[in-house]
Structure formats: structure tokens, C-alpha cells
Amino acid sequence: MQNDPILQVLEACDQRRNARREFMRYAGGAAIATAGASVLAACSDSGGGFITPGPTPTPTPTATTALTDADVLNFALNLEYLEAQFYSFAATGAGLPNSSLSGTGTQGAVSGGRQVTFTDPLVARYAREIAADEIAHVNFLRTALGSAAVAQPAIDIGVTATSAFSNAARAAGLIGAGAAFDVYANDENFLLGAFIFEDVGVTAYKGAVGFVSNKTFLEAAAGIHAAEAYHAGLVRTVLYRKGVATPSLIDATEAISTARDSLDGSSDLDQGIRATGSGNATASNIVPTDGSGIAFSRTPGQVLNIVYLDRTAKTAGGFFPNGVNGTIRSSAAN
């Protein structure tokens, strides 16, 4: 009974993202990878209001020999703080307890965050499950690192016109100049906020597992990577299904994906959820992979380009206004 509207929507979608199936490996990258208006304003996309960038320099590989397992896990911990706070506020209206935020480096506060009044009970349940997982990730990494664990840095998950979410949404063309993007306003905005983080998180842990030497830590990183992949697949699936009735949601994921691509280098790997093919050959795009069905990775610098909302080499910005704590702190120069 649902096939007709699904086909009508999906067959109407353009296929401009098909080329993003092409795989590119990042050899000689740094230890790991994960998830500003002025930054994203340098992006490029037809109709997206981005400025065409100049020639993109070849990224300088970051040396991995000086990085330890603790460096890698602490980089991941910064990102887990961000995700855990976002989901915790969205699902419950409260953030993490202060006992889960202390450590080395400067401890920062969370700006913004509030509970979403969900109208879809399934989305509410998904939000609570993901929140519990992300909080557990924070606590696990803090326990594994012990006294070496970094403190939570300052985090911006607010919804003012100048907040990180609003800057990202504006540069992706989702809102206009001076407008604010409220990720807590409804189910759909919440899902788009989750989409920003989850895809980046998967690429982070995909890159991390190759640079962790301790077997126990390696198994844990692989396990967290699997959990993040489940989260990302769930978020993409719900957006895809809701996009059947509201095609603008599919368009929004494409715009966010294009913005992420413009930040993390010259390659065009990131993918929204637009379907591929047509007619009886139409296939969903729930899992963003290469032609071999393999998820791609990001270097730490590329991850920080996205969460800092800046395509240049910076040590702070976007969702981390004062930067992250630990050894890995600088975004790449793209």
C-alpha cells in the first residue's frame, strides 16, 4: 500500500550522489578519525549558496609514531562527550553529571541543550537508547584511560542564530541569514542533528581501529564502532522513511553531506540518503559505502574540520569553541 508514494518520491530524486560510491583510501593518515559560518561559507555546491573553493592542497600526513593508545582514546572521548551531551539533553532534558566530566586539561561547560517534545514515540525510544549508549561510551573510555582521561571541553549544542548547529545548517542552505536552527524543536530537526554526528562518528572509529595497539582497547574501539554504525544506520533509516512523505528531509541530508565533504578535503566521499537507480532497480542508500560495500574513514584532522566547522587548520571552533582536550587538537588544512 505504500509502494506508490515511495516510488513517486524516489524516482523523482536526482542521482547526483551516485558518483560518491567511488572509494578512496587515505594512506599515511593520522592516528584516528571521527564527527563557523565563515568556514562552511567556503564550501561549494550548486544551488547551495557556497563559494567555489580554490585549488585544494594535498593534506600533509600526520605522524602516527608519537601517538599513544591514550592519545587515540582521548580524542575519541572528546567526541563522545559531544554526542552524549546532545543525546542526553534531547532525550531527558539533562546532561551528564559533573562526576563524568573531570580529567586532564581544562574542563568546559555545555552551552544549550534541552529535551525534545517528541511526537513520534519510536523516535523518542530511539533517542533514549542512543543516549544511554553514548553515556556508556563516555564512562567506559574514562575508566579505560583512568587518570589519563581528558576532561570534557567546552561544548556548544545551543540553538541561537550563532550556535554551531545554526552555522552548520545555514551554510548547508537549510536556514537563511540571521536565522536559528533548533534541533530540539521537533523529531525531524533532532534527526538531522543526529545525522550530523553519527556518520562522522562511524568514520572516526573506522579509522581508529587501525591505530590502537593494545588488544583490549582495540576490541573496545571495534565494539564502539559497531554501536555507532548501528546508531547511524538507524538515524538514516528513519530519515529515509520520513523522507518518503517529506522529500525535503532527503534534500537536507544531501546538503549536510555536501557541506561535510567541502570541509574535510577534496574527495567526494560523504553521502546523504538519496536513493540510487530508478524503477525496479531503485535501491536505498542507508549505508554510505564505496563500490565494495566498505565504509570510509576520516583522519583526525578531517574529523576536526567538521566539528570545528572550518576547512582550514584550527585548534578550536564550531561545536568545540575552545577546542578539544588532549594531544590531537588541530584540524587539517584543506
UniProtKB/TrEMBL annotation:
Q: Which Pfam families does the annotation name?
A: Ferritin_2
Q: Which domain of life is it from?
A: Bacteria
Return the InterPro entries for the record: Pigment-catalase-like
Put simply, this protein is called: Ferritin-like domain-containing protein
Q: From which source organism is this entry? A: Sphingomonas hankookensis
* Taxonomic lineage from the root: Bacteria, Pseudomonadati, Pseudomonadota, Alphaproteobacteria, Sphingomonadales
